[in-house]
Amino acid sequence: MGSLLRLAALLIGVGGTTVALADATLQVMPTGPRAGETTLRLTDSAGRTVAPNPGSPNSFSNLAAGQYSAVAMVGGNPLGQPTSIRLEEGRNEARVSSATGAIELLSRQGSMQQQQQHWGFGVLGGWKRTPFDGSISSSALGMTASGGLEETGQTLALEARYYLRQRTPQSGLRFFGFGSYNFFSGLDTERALVQFHPGTGNDSGVAVEEKDSIQLGAGARWMASRDTGLEALAGLHRTRITLTAFSNEMGGGGPNNRFTKEESSWDFLWGLGLTHRVFNLSSGRPVSATVRYTAARIRDMSVSGMSPFTGSTYTGRVNGGWNQSLTAGLLF
Q1: Domain assignments of the chain as residue spans, ordered by start
Q2: 171 three-class SS
Q3: Would the N or C end of the chain have less CB density within 10 A of its end CB?
C-alpha cells in the first residue's frame, strides 16, 4: 500500500505539469507605456463578465471554447472598442496595447500541446463494500450451509481520460473515455459456516478476496457553473477475485482441505460524480476536486475439490451483486 501511495504522488507531480482538462485558457500580455495597469475585460456570448483567475488578473481558465467580446482596461477604465475574439480549446494568448486598446489574438501553440490538452489524469481513494454471501456443500453428507460474506475496505484508483472535442461549447457538455486501475485492501473475508464433522465448532466454510480491478468506459461532464460540474460514467470492469472452499475433516487444528481458484469477473459498472475547480497550475490549467459514487456488478462464482482423505467433494459458492464504492480525489 505504501509503494502505491508513493507511485500516486509521483504521478501527480508528473501529470500536474503535462496534462489538463480540455477547456480553453487565455493569457493576456499587455504592451506599451502603461502595461502594468492594463487588463482585459472578457464577456461571454450570454453577456456575462468572465472573472480572471484569483490573484492573476491577466489569465483566464476553465473557459468554454467559443466567441467572446473583449475590451482593454487601462487604470480601471475601458480603452478602445470591444473586439470579438474566438477562443479555441487549450491555451490561447492575446496581446493588448495600453496605448490604443487594440487587442490581437495570437496564433495557437503547436499541435502537440493541443493534443495533450485533450488528456486528463485523476487520483481517487476511499471506501468500498462487497455484496457477497456464500455457501458450502458436502457431497458425502448431502448438506449445504450458507452465510454472509460482506466486507468493507479501501480502494485507490489511478485514472486516465481522453476528452472528445466539444462540438457545442455553449451547452457545457463534454464527453470522454476513461480507463483506471483500482487497488483494493481489507476486502478478504473467511467464514466457517457449518459443522460437517465431529469436533468442536464449525469446520467448513468459504473465503473470498477482491484483489484489484481494471475499469474501462465512457462518460459525460456537464458544467452546472463555471467551476462545478456533474459527471455520469458507464462501462465495464474486470475484477480479480480469489475463492476458497475449506473443510476440516479431522477435527481441531484448522481446515485440512482447502480448494482455491482465481476468477476474473467481467461485468457492467456505472457511476455519478461531482467536480469543483479548486486551483490552477502556474500554466493556468485547472485542478478539480471530485467526489464519486460507483456501482460495479459481480457475477456468481464457485469452487470445488475432492478430499484426498475421504473422497468427499466440497463445493463453495459465492453469490455476487453490486459492489459499491465512494471515493474522492483530484482531476488534472
Answers
A1: 24-114, 118-331
A2: helix
A3: N
